[in-house]
Amino acid sequence: ARVDKAGYKHFMAKEIAEQPQVLGDALNFYLDAEGKIALPGAGIDFAGIERLTLVACGTAYYACLTAKYWFEQLARIPVEVDVASEFRYREPPITQGTAALFVSQSGETADTLAALRYCAGKAERILSVVNVAESSIARESDLALPILAGTEIGVASTKAFSCQLTVLLLLALEAARQKGQIGAERLAELTTALRGLPAVISRALDDGAHAEAISQQLAETTDVLFLGRGLMYPLALEGALKMKEISYIHAEAYASGELKHGPIALIDKHVPVVVMAPRDGLFDKTVSNMQEVLARGGKVLLISDKAGIEAAQDGIWQSIELPQVDPVLAPILYAVPAQLIAYHTAVAKGTDVDQPRNLAKSVTVE
Ligand code: G6P
């Protein structure tokens, strides 16, 4: 079927707005009426799986980095994450008990497919998380998990990213359940919270005007830094990627704790620093990094919840307030303001948002 912009100025805007709907579709697919996780086909038996190797490119790679925290913290399974172009030529040993998981929106990215083929016959299981169910990566996997984001046209991935995160979190929860690492109560709490996420994301989208206003000022800058810790570190990386892809503003992300090992040298009053920090167990650590930025005259845009913004607002330049959610789910919600500020900054600069220069939606040649 032909997909049109449905009244939106860009496909990217439409795809950002579609997230509550498509996340709901993915949740309906993976959660049964009782809220139990149901994987397609024969599912996955995690009993023989001791290790996971996650491989992808671009935005899908950041989804993998996020999933590392989930699989390690919730299921206690050690995870290695790599970009496909490095993985495929390093000839990494694939030991017994390793499941290899490939994440790809298109299912056709050349490097990711080559990495999958390298693992075939070596890994215990070949799994994939894909948007295009008939793709090469899906076909060549033992089990392909669809993300159900629907056709994504904007080159900068948005709804596919939040759906990838959702499916990866569900998979980590299923692994945690099978490995006896999560209690029934906590599992139910998290799946219930996931069920509520589409509505929470709708609220965040309804508040998008503030992100738009801030973006008018971001559009005047030449460099932006993104900081995050724990689950927010991969989100910071994704935020920086979105920003550079479509606004052409130089954007870089660091783990907050790495600030003092280099990037702090770049801080002055001209460089906005986007700090992604829900009020979770790591919040105070991130705030102390933020204070190091403020002490050097840096301009902080804090993305947090009400409690976080109240606790840390002294001296900050701008804030974007998000609804409070369980910290485990926060990456899926925090993807939204990252998308919005990149989008509105690009629109303010007048770039070709859906078809940014030099980039392709799917990189099927090396
Ligand atoms: C290209 C796209 C990105 C995407 C990456 C991986 O670089 O511009 O948006 O994240 O490829 O694509 P895949 O289809 O494998 O997820």
TrEMBL record:
<protein>
    <recommendedName>
        <fullName>Glutamine--fructose-6-phosphate aminotransferase [isomerizing]</fullName>
        <ecNumber>2.6.1.16</ecNumber>
    </recommendedName>
</protein>
<dbReference type="GO" id="GO:0005975">
    <property type="term" value="P:carbohydrate metabolic process"/>
</dbReference>
<comment type="subunit">
    <text>Homodimer.</text>
</comment>
<dbReference type="GO" id="GO:0046349">
    <property type="term" value="P:amino sugar biosynthetic process"/>
</dbReference>
<dbReference type="GO" id="GO:0004360">
    <property type="term" value="F:glutamine-fructose-6-phosphate transaminase (isomerizing) activity"/>
</dbReference>
<keyword id="KW-0315">Glutamine amidotransferase</keyword>
<comment type="function">
    <text>Catalyzes the first step in hexosamine metabolism, converting fructose-6P into glucosamine-6P using glutamine as a nitrogen source.</text>
</comment>
<dbReference type="GO" id="GO:0006002">
    <property type="term" value="P:fructose 6-phosphate metabolic process"/>
</dbReference>
<dbReference type="GO" id="GO:0005829">
    <property type="term" value="C:cytosol"/>
</dbReference>
<dbReference type="GO" id="GO:0006047">
    <property type="term" value="P:UDP-N-acetylglucosamine metabolic process"/>
</dbReference>
<feature type="active site" description="For Fru-6P isomerization activity">
    <location>
        <position position="361"/>
    </location>
</feature>
<keyword id="KW-0032">Aminotransferase</keyword>
<keyword id="KW-0963">Cytoplasm</keyword>
<keyword id="KW-0808">Transferase</keyword>
<dbReference type="GO" id="GO:0006487">
    <property type="term" value="P:protein N-linked glycosylation"/>
</dbReference>
<feature type="domain" description="SIS">
    <location>
        <begin position="214"/>
        <end position="356"/>
    </location>
</feature>
<dbReference type="GO" id="GO:0097367">
    <property type="term" value="F:carbohydrate derivative binding"/>
</dbReference>
<keyword id="KW-0677">Repeat</keyword>
<feature type="domain" description="SIS">
    <location>
        <begin position="42"/>
        <end position="181"/>
    </location>
</feature>
